[in-house]
Design goal:
By secondary structure, this protein is of the alpha/beta class. The chain has 3 domains: 164 residues, Rossmann fold; 153 residues, Rossmann fold (3-Layer(aba) Sandwich); 189 residues, Thiamin diphosphate (ThDP)-binding fold, Pyr/PP domains (Rossmann fold), CATH 3.40.50. It is 42% helix and 18% strand. Strands 11-10-9-14-15-16 form a 6-stranded parallel beta sheet, with helices on both faces. Strands 18-17-19-20-22-21 form a 6-stranded parallel beta sheet, with helices on both faces. Helix 6 links the parallel strand 6 and strand 7. Helix 15 packs across helix 16. It is globular.
């Protein structure tokens, strides 16, 4: 005989979960009180709990777990679950629920959770029998991690949490399919005919650990490699054949000049590991041959004149099959031209770094990053600079956290906190890059960071505005409405929570470098508040480059 809450904890242990995140309440307390081998991290908001679980899971390369109370708690969790759904982050989201015997009767805070979550999860179910507890949770972990990954929701009534369950049997382990039967012959034909192909890596290519195969295929064909914003770090930024990100935001192309040149010159584009949300709606690909290798059929392929598709659950094995079928090539004039353009761009950035405050801030962050660093980024005007110029030096999924697909504000800070919880031996430098608009939505969980004494650095690009919306208004009709915010000192706010706070004048080049070095070496929760006009530095950089 085992209580339902104990069966749940055993499932967490089985799947190597040390922490799960949420806010305690009446329909969660049974689970919390029975915990022995796993810790429940009480956060300050359920949205943050979901983002922390996502960051924790990505860092550990398995589904993260969040457990919140029903009603208002479940409603607050919706944003982070929707983000996991559109970004393909593996997540197990659990909601507490009133006792089954109360169903059909008036009950405070009742919501029909499965109906709410069914459109933003891979599966949403309610446990209605004690014997369902173990198989439902085992299935949830398997389904959340399977291709394409995403969130699974379970509604867990409080009477089943405390119920003694008979005949609990271990679930059978499902073996991963390590065979690959995808037909790659059409792509091999196109590659053999192609004179200058380009490979674009997307999120699932990084999530499935395809870095080595991408590098081998690139070298074999002397083929330039680009990536989406979600897949930054798939190749080391100094790899000669890596051209950086390909992206278009609003009226602005974030793609580097040498990457744009590759797209213009290529006669075949191969996209590996993409999803529809990641590419839509303005992905700047030429309308020539586009070949998608993805874990599920893509709707986005219909927007290209000539597109092909391979659907494969195991991208690594499919790439290995292609590598074995393709002969090696020598470098051509176009390949040499790409390498030359990349070197020239690097020299341009070195020159511009002296002239542009924003670029210097990002390059200063680059100076401290290594293969053991974790960087988390929010959406916003500061992200334009970051995704274009950050150098992520690790191919592991948890080294780069970005909500490309759903793009909610406030993701960066709690996701980085979750990644720090996964760093049990404190081996990683974890940095959150955020704007003042996004950070102010989630800064309540500075208290969680301080309570657990987690050494993490948060850099707030503070322009006292919703900068991205302001930028769009200026581009649209030059009229500013409802976007300017009160000048706020986030360093002082951090100190109020018990963290370290450092206020930085970005015009003093050395002050930010000193602040970042101090924050990392202090091994303390630290917020660096940088007053910077992100619109101006971004526009200046575009004009000069």
């Amino acid at each position: 005989m085992k209580r339902g809450s104990k069966i749940f904890e055993e499932s967490l242990v089985k799947h190597d979960i040390d922490y799960f995140f949420g806010i305690p309440g009446g329909d969660v307390m049974e689970v919390i009180e029975d915990l022995e081998d796993v810790e429940f991290v009480s956060t300050r908001h359920e949205e943050c709990a979901g983002f922390m679980a996502a960051g924790y899971g990505l860092a550990k390369q398995r589904p993260g777990v969040t457990f919140v109370r029903g009603g208002p708690g479940a409603a607050n969790l919706v944003i982070s679950v929707a983000n996991a759904f559109q970004c393909h982050h593996p997540l197990v989201a659990i909601t507490g629920q009133m006792p089954l015997s109360y169903f059909g009767k008036p009950y405070p805070q009742f919501l029909d959770h499965p109906r709410i979550f069914e459109t933003i999860t891979k599966k949403s179910v309610r446990i209605t029998d004690g014997n369902q507890i173990q198989p439902y949770f085992d299935d949830a972990f398997t389904l959340a991690a399977s291709s394409p990954p995403g969130p699974v929701h379970i509604d867990f009534p409080m009477d089943l949490q405390r119920k003694e369950i008979e005949n609990v049997h271990p679930s059978e382990e499902k073996q991963k399919d390590e065979t690959e039967n995808a037909d790659t012959s059409e792509l091999v034909k196109l590659l053999n005919k192609s004179e200058f192909p380009v490979l674009i890596c997307a999120w699932e290519a990084k999530l499935q650990g395809c870095s080595q195969e991408i590098s081998q295929l690139s070298e074999r064909l002397q083929m330039p490699v680009l990536c989406t914003r979600n897949a930054m770090g798939i190749l080391h930024p100094d790899d000669l054949l890596f051209g950086g990100i390909v992206a278009k935001v609003w009226k602005t192309t974030l793609t580097s000049p040498h990457a744009n040149w590759v797209l213009e010159q290529s006669d075949l584009v191969i996209v590996v590991g993409a999803n529809d949300f990641e590419l839509a709606p303005r992905f700047p690909l030429p309308s020539r041959d586009v070949f998608f290798i993805s874990t599920h059929p893509l709707k986005i392929k219909s927007q290209y004149d000539s597109s092909y598709e391979i659907v494969s659950s195991n991208l690594r094995l499919t790439l290995q099959k292609i590598i074995k079928s393709i002969p090696s090539r020598q470098q051509t004039e176009k390949h040499a031209k790409f390498v030359e353009l990349k070197k020239n761009w690097s020299k341009t950035l070195n020159r511009l770094r002296i002239q542009n405050i924003g670029l210097d801030l990002i390059e200063t962050v680059n100076d401290v990053l290594d293969r053991n660093s974790v960087v988390s980024l929010d959406v916003g005007i500061h992200a334009f600079l970051a995704v274009r110029h950050l150098k992520i030096k690790s191919s592991k999924p948890g080294a780069w956290l970005f909500p490309g697909g759903f793009y909610p504000m406030g993701f960066s800070f709690p996701a980085a906190v979750g990644a720090k919880f996964a760093d049990k031996n404190n081996e990683k430098t974890v940095i959150s890059l955020t704007g003042d608009g996004a950070f102010s939505m989630v800064m309540c969980d500075l208290e969680t960071l301080v309570r657990y004494e987690l050494p993490m650095t948060t850099i707030v690009f503070n322009d006292s505005a919703y900068g991205l919306i302001k930028f769009q208004q200026l581009e649209y009709d030059k009229k500013i409405r409802a976007v300017n915010l009160t000048r706020t000192d986030y360093a002082k706010i951090a100190e109020g929570f018990g963290a370290d706070g450092i206020k930085v004048d970005p015009t003093d080049v050395g002050s930010f470098k000193a602040a970042l070095k101090e924050a990392i070496s202090s091994q303390r929760p630290t917020v660096i508040d940088v007053d910077v006009n992100t619109i101006k530095v971004f526009e200046d950089l575009l004009e000069k480059s």
